[in-house]
Amino acid sequence: MSPATANPALQGARAQRQETRGLWLGVLGVTIFAFSLPMTRLAVGSAEAPQLSGLFVALGRAAVAGALSVLFLILTRAPRPQPADGLPIVITSLGVVFGFPLLTSVAMRHVESVHASVMLGVLPLATAAVGALLARQRPSMGFWLCALAGSALVIGFALLRHEPGAAGPGLQFADALLLLAMLCAAVGYAYGARLSAHLRADHVICWALVVALPITVPAALLTWPAVPVRPAAWLGFAYVSLFSMWLGFFAWYRGLALGGTVRVSQVQLVQPFMSMVFSVPLLGESLDAVTVGFALAVIASVFIGKKMPIRPA
To answer: Global pTM?
Structure first.
């Protein structure tokens, strides 16, 4: 028995360092993902000035990331997943390769990035719930109160900033797509984190992309744009293909595996406001004192939630 194993204090310190590292990796992943909505909006354009189709952006970015994944798995000599990993990989793929990108890409043509950002603000709570169910963890009441408070803040912000004159059928449909996208992402994040406990985090997203290639490559070719689009649209597509669909998950899944899905997922609470900040230079959207105030309140709920205990089942 090693000294580190025999000494509970050393074990606790190592666990704390691992959790802290997981949280910082989670922050890196969330920062990368925070660009996803504004970049997707840049790629698909608006209803008045459409660019790339939502189907092409969603399926094309998965095809590009899948091709890169094949090369990466070969170069790193990745072992094949075990048979028991097959279903979790498929579920991860359905959530983060198909569900979330497809639903958000279609919705982003009909809503602004700021609005979509706050609609997805409940994603941390959904991810924590799915993660706790899979890992058989029991978050304390204080943890759930912090998660609920943070989610209530982003929902309240969405209601506060909702424009009464923009409540038409198109917007309601887009909101429904965003909520479904949130559920897909929560399931994909939780299952990917579970796989990352025994597979390399970068290999998890790569395998999820590779199993989708028989669908994404033909679909991307069929939806290839028939008319020229702005270079900015291709820039947005390049970002979501390389970073949102691939490199961001390297950090995100590793962070979830190290720090725990339930706890690290709460870092996502700041993602809506990070997306808003990024939308200002990219899309020309505005940022005011109310948004900053809500952002600070959400960050406070994340900080307090980090201190709350999480017990194993």
So the answer is: 0.82
